[in-house]
Amino acid sequence: MNALLLAVALAAAPQPKAPPPAPASTPLEAKDFLQSRTKNIAIARLFAPGVASLSTDEKRVLWNLTLAAHAGQDIAYDQLGWRLVAVKRLLENVYLFGKEGQGGPGLFDKRLTAYLERFYGHMGNHDHVTGQKFVPEFTAGELEAAAVRAFRAGAAFGVKDEVALRAWLVELRPTIFDASFEPALTSKSPPAGQDMVTASANTAYGPGVTLADVRDFKEKYPLNSRLVKENGKLVEQVFRTGAGKVPPGLYAVELGRVTSHLKEATKSAPKDQKAVLGKLVRYFETGNPKDWDAFNIAWLKANPRVDATMGFVETYVDPLGQKGLWEALVNYRDPQENRVMELIGKRAQYFEERMPWPQAYKRKKVSLPVAKAIDLVATYPQPPAGINLPNEQHIREKYGSKSVMVANVMEAASALRRLPLALEFSRTPEDRAQAAKHSATARKWLVAFHEVLGHASGQVDKKLGKQPPSRFLKEYDNTLEEARADLVALWHAFDPALAALSPEHEQIAQQMYRDFLVEGLTNMQRVEKGNAFEEDHQRGHHMTVNFLIEKGAVKPTVEGGRTYWTVVDFKKMREAVGELLSKLMVIKATGDYEGIRTLVTQKGIQFDPKLRDEVAARVKAADVPSVLFLTAPRLVPVLDDRRRVVDVKVESTQGFIEQHLERSVLGRLPPAEASVAAARLASAPDTLKEMYRKLPQVPGELPAKVPAVP
User: I want to staple 553 with a disulfide (CB 3.0 to 4.6 A). Which of 67, 453, 493, 573 is the partner?
Assistant: First the structure.
């Protein structure tokens, strides 16, 4: 980086700031969060007011963890589709260099912007929740013309001439424009002639690998590998950088940049966090499951103010529920929202003893969980409202878990989506008044119980040995676990211990029950085509609601052409909740595959498309967005004359697409240059195009083996 660039970076003028979020006593409104709205998609900003109060060392850790998150983001795109990294490069180059741009945005430019927002928001071309593929409104011819314009304007596509560019576009055409090509991200109900592996568009399993191949294969690296066929033999391609005698594997370059930033974070981290980050680096070097366990155990014991979830964590995308998707969430503790988390965490043993399942599956000595409220500063566009980790059952039972409620995500989601839906689907004026008063708090309580106790509760039968329940429950494991965690929240909602949080705890519990039913109804409108749920959370939720209806605790009611799911009696509903919760815990504890398969297939998958259409029309009429993408707070490093980070500022005016373009640059720069580039981009955003142009642009540059297009 030359001296002039450094001088510009160090003299960075502050960006115009968005109005600061209101004090905690004054809840923010939808208008405070909303950045833009396109049809059923809303883009909202997250706030991170607590960054200013962090120490200088904490800010350095926060910044370097954020750079590590950016460095790994393309891994997730590559895991979600065989050509998605190439498509991402194409779209970014066209957006930066190939728009029509004369006389204002033309129709193609508007459609390109809408598609790129959606592509970033879902991290690919399949809906994040439903798994269904979406295609752009512009044509292949329009995209080709724009790509040629970009090439002539100097975009570095990684091709030698226009002939090669056009040939590359032909290769990408089915991925971008053919809705019938790789139509489902994860197919747990595959069409005739295919199985769950061959019908899924994600890259957990290579070309030619079938479900039959996988069933009989014993993996050494089930969480962080891809299974492929080489010379007709099934082999594991491990995700790792390599170290010493350990050879590099898939994503070695990307993970190498990640570990460089983690090592830099370690320099400023407190003692216990230094050990955590060192073990995470070791895991990325070796890919060894034992190193992953060692990291998780150390992570559980440490409780720094600045923290992160990073690695190959959640297994929802894999149809068999084994392989983890790259994830990186960077956060700091939010003390203002900690009360409910602290109460549940401190009384975890009390709540465990009151679970409705058999005594044999209750934990006799619950390790005190780390429970806290956090704000995210680095995240993907559709983050969870709560997190409970690690997922490994043997670590949970021996060492406990860490549970968080994501306060700034919940604030945005409540203002823009959850409260408006609760009001729309409340049957009576009294219910609407209760929703307006208690819905936000009820959601926080549900998430807190779901994460602190739901995933961390119970113990499995010793007959399972050292095998986790997922090995037995297979493709239904995640569905069961999400339903079980929700049911734990619903079961404990009326516990008198919650009176310590609010004198209106019973009204809040009642609202939690009503909102659970509202979410069950509105889940259907996310599935725009067909009549079946594929996603695990939705399947678990639908299974639970159908069980409650069958037990007579919930009654579908139609008034004025509008359908409501109403609680017949709260006591009766809680009893039904306890019955299903006990049933699911026994299934998990004993590894009863047939038991969970029967429940999910009979109650969790199919829904009435006519009811879905009615719900979708009501959501549209109420002008509530169906999909919410979140723009993370933008961190801007302040550097001294030796390029060291001496402060980190936060601003909330950055656009959604601009944020992801900036991440594409920062994530692929050599680690030594990333901080200087970030400071420069904050003061001179027009340099983004030039920085992007100089990045290496090789189609399919990640090491994925791309299957042939039929």
Answer: 573
Determine the pLDDT at residue 514: 97
* Burial of residue 710 (number of CB atoms within 10 Å: 0-12, 13-18, 19+): exposed
Query: What is the per-residue DSSP string for 322-380?
Result: -SPEEEEEEEEE-GGG-HHHHHHHHTHHHHHHT-SS-GGGS-SS----EEEEEEEEE--
Per-residue HEC secondary structure of 503-566 comes to: CCHHHHHHHHHHHHHHHHHHHHHHCCCCCECCCHHHHHHHHHHHHHHHCCCEEEEEECCEEEEE
Residue 434 zone, left/alpha/beta (φ > 0; ψ -120 to 50; rest): alpha
Residue-wise pLDDT tens digits, 117-150: 999 999 999 999 999 999 999 999 999 999 999 9
Closest CA to 693 of 658, 665, 654, 663: 665
Using an 8 Å Cβ cutoff, are 56 and 647 in contact?
yes
Low-confidence ranges of the chain (pLDDT < 70): 1-27, 102-104, 697-710
Q: What is the pLDDT of residues 680-710, one digit of tens each?
A: 999 998 999 999 998 876 544 444 444 433 3
On the CB side of 340, CA atoms within 13 Å amount to 29
Q: For residue 298, what are the CA distances in angstroms to 294, 372, 533, 561, 568?
A: 6, 17, 37, 56, 47
Query: What is the C-alpha to C-alpha distance for residues 133 and 84, in angstroms, rounded to an integer?
Result: 13
